Amino acid sequence: MPKTTDSRLQITSQQLQALNRLAQMVISSMDFDMMLQTILHEAMQMAGAEKGAVLSLSDEKNRPMQTLFKTAEHSQHSLDSAFSDLIGGWVLKNRTPLLLDHFAQDSRFVQARTWFSDVRAVLAVPMFVREEIIGILILTRSESFSQNELELMKIVSTQCAQLLENARNYRHVFRENQQLRMEIERRYDYHGLVGNSPKMQQLYALLQRVIPGEARVLLEGESGTGKELLARIIHYNGPRKEKSFIAVDCGALPETLLESEFFGHVKGAFTGAIADKKGLFECADGGTLFLDEIGNTNPVFQAKLLRAVQEGEIKPVGSEQVRKVDVRIIAATSGRLYEKVKAGEFREDLYYRLNVLNLHLPPLRERMEDIPLLASHFLTKFAIKTKKNCRGFSPKVMRILEKYDWPGNIRELENVIERAVALADASDENISVELLPENLTLFHNGSLLLPDNHANLPQAMEALERYMISDALRHCSGNRTSSADRLGITRQTLISKIKKYALK
Ligand SMILES: Nc1ncnc2c1ncn2[C@@H]1O[C@H](COP(=O)(O)OP(=O)(O)OP(=O)(O)O)[C@@H](O)[C@H]1O
Ligand SMILES: [Mg+2]
């Protein structure tokens, strides 16, 4: 209960302290809902109210956006929302505080007195920001409120109104910011493909026509340009998405196994064939088969593939029976497949069957303007994954990323960022140059910088090795066999070095 009989001075000093505490508590939170709760709680404490409500009004005036109710510990039932609307409506209309000793005896609320017969004293104050009422504080108790308490609540409402308004603006800006970010993501992110350069825009335009259809697709692009990602996007957004997507690297399968892997075999077809086995075509029936590195197949197999592609029929090894399959084929090569046709290494008829729709994935160096977007995309991805704080790149790092020629394309960029995030301290906000691989910092404009004072001989040699490998890969459009020949090393050695330098 309030100490209405205490000396004015004592009450004032206590009230000032309470006011100060309220301001501190409200300021300490920028969360609008928390603020409303704090205001109601503290105002009820200061005025010794038994029940209270705070209405926050929407920007389109006169409509309560939200009402918060609270009761003191010893009282039951909160205020009726019809009651808070009635009092709130009166305050809003008259733009002035309301002080009632006995609600039921007031002539202004005659019609409502039987509905809210348990209410006695009422104190309600508008919360003004400039000329606008943004909220209304309503308190009730069984004993009358004093004029002094009304004055105090007017001060509370004036103080809190501005803070509430700030929090509301903050919430508004925050939500707008979130929405903008999502919009930007949507604009730059086409089904998970990041990039907004003219070359990517062209690709997106083509994709819109490729996805809903059934035609075979040939994807051409250097290593790490996103061929497999694109194949998945085509499948998972197209009419076959409910059925299987099966990816197979034709170059990685031993020639002797190709046929049975693709078309299956029957029991006893060859030594070791102890049971019937379904081939990849049958497993992908109704769905999509992604034939990666299709250029690395031999002519015998190509002839069998032609039949399956052309007729939609397969014959398992050891079987005389032909089976029908319905599979959408997406093939991919890291070079230009037609070069292989010209060299007599790939069947021309199969080439034309596969190349119904041709999508070329540009190397990263031809769309350098996408680097900041891609780098931030991967930074967010790995920061979330590793729960790190990294949010951006130092300007020097961004300069290096934008100048480097990325022979391993997006995969290389992704690996570089993953490594940097893994090495970053939990508190690092920016990726600094020290977190980049040394060989990257030794490059500029696509050429090797002579090692400076900080680089020792092994580092310089690694940089040179990396430079020569990426140069060879670029020169041979990502073809590893030709690159290894050019470098005078075995394919195996080349593959291990590509891994070592995160070129793939
Ligand atoms: N436009 C893109 N936006 C975001 N991530 C991408 C994009 N393109 C590729 N990636 C990512 O880069 C990595 C390499 O892509 P993917 O494996 O599809 O390349 P690829 O062309 O099949 O490479 P390779 O020829 O070496 O097999 C993947 O992690 C993929 O998710
Ligand atoms: Mg691939």
Q: Given the C-alpha coordinates, what overall shape results?
A: elongated
Secondary structure category: alpha/beta
Beta-strand fraction estimate: 15-25%
Terminus-to-terminus distance? 75 Å
Mean pLDDT: 85
Count of spatially separate domains: 3
Q: CATH homologous superfamily of the largest domain, by name?
A: P-loop containing nucleotide triphosphate hydrolases
Question: Unreliable segments (pLDDT under 50, ≥5 consecutive)?
Answer: 1-6
Query: Helix amount, in percent?
Result: 40-55%
Number of strands: 18
Largest sheet: 5 strands, antiparallel
- CATH class of the largest domain, named Alpha Beta
| CATH fold node name of the largest domain | Rossmann fold
Main sheet strand line-up: 2-1-5-4-3
Examine the secondary-structure arrangement and name the CATH architecture of the largest domain.
Answer: 3-Layer(aba) Sandwich
C-alpha Rg (nearest Å): 36 Å
Query: What small molecules does this complex bind?
Result: adenosine-5'-triphosphate, magnesium ion
